[in-house]
Amino acid sequence: MIVRLAWKKQNSDVSNASLIFLGIFCQIATLPYLWFLFPLFIHSRILFTISGEISVALGEAVIYLFFLKVGLKRSLMLSFFCNAVSFLAGILLHILV
Question: Contact at 8 Å (CB) between 50 and 87?
């Protein structure tokens, strides 16, 4: 897993199941804000995408910070990496479907 590889957490007390749950929890906690709240205030597609992805990444970074206890810099990097992968996967799926 990314957390274990990037931060040498192989021997930590955080299980793989906990990491998977945390990733799913972050998505569930932030996705409704992105899809249902942001469109009420932001109508430009580009501004929506940029501000939405940054806001979601910052929100998820806070969750990672408190649950993984990896520090602010690492939680931000992890969050931005996960959201970049998610964003690119969405683009790829949109192209393929």
Answer: no
